[in-house]
Amino acid sequence: xxxxxxxxxxxxxxxxxxxxxxxxxxxxxxxxxxxxxxxxxxxxxxxxxxxxxxxxxxxxxxxxx
Length: 65
Description:
Layout: H1 2-15, H2 20-33, H3 36-52
């Protein structure tokens, strides 16, 4: 079940990556819902996504643990 939430979060983030504000809001939601090891995985995934979309980089501050 938890893995399904992680996959769903990645899907949502991909869909809203066009808007920095929406993306940031979804990252904040994800941090409150995911398990600590999933947040670390999400951080790695978002870092790779920011190579294509550098404007999303500010949202990484919400993933600092």
